[in-house]
Amino acid sequence: MLVVLVILGLTAGVVVPQMSTMGASFDFSLKREAFEQTLNGLAYQAFRDNQDLLLIGDYTDAGRVEGSEPKRDPGASLAASMRTLPAAGEERVHQPPLNPAYAQLPLPAGWRATVSAPIYFRASGFCGGGAVTLEIGRAAYSYELSAPQCHARLVD
């Protein structure tokens, strides 16, 4: 009986200190997976709400950072009456939506997501694709969202 108790004590001495590290790792994995699920769900959210969404700029735990999107030349966008493109002979270009809402990315405290080029999620469920960088402390993770459904893929 004494030998069994000694073995259990030694095992507990090795395992118990690792439990907090394991718990923190598990918590981090759950939060990052929730972030990926949010990214993957934006196209469906646009479809469900029948509202075009725009993902651009910096996002923190407080929401989108106002004024963080890159400045664009106002002459670079087309007026609503000029949005018709040729049907044949040229590659089809998907124009930005006329009245998109900013997408929301709920993030845990200390996390920051950056989207340098606009990613458009159409009410039809189509997504133009793009890239998102997630910064957690000193670590950075890059995600690629590829058209037409923008499934988030972690890039090495």
Account of the 3D structure:
Helices cover 31% and strands 28% of the residues. It has a domain at 51-69 and 95-156. Strand 6 (139-146) and strand 7 (151-155) form a beta hairpin. By secondary structure, the chain is of the alpha+beta class. Strands 1, 2, 3, 4, 5, 6 and 7 form a 7-stranded mixed β-sheet that branches. It starts with a helix and ends with a strand.
Radius of gyration, Cα only, in angstroms? Answer: 22 Å
How many individual β-strands? 7
Largest β sheet strand count, sense and barrel closure? 7 strands, mixed
Strand composition percent: 25-35%
Form type? elongated
Mean pLDDT equals 82
Which structural class fits the helix and strand makeup?
Answer: alpha+beta
Helix percent band: 25-40%
Low-confidence stretches: 77-83
Distance between the termini: 52 Å
Please provide the ordered H/E string of secondary-structure elements: HEEEEEEE
How many helices? The count is 1
Compact overview of the structure:
Helix content is 31%, strand content 28%.
What attributes characterize this protein structure?
156 residues; alpha+beta; 7-stranded mixed beta sheet; 1 helix; 7 strands
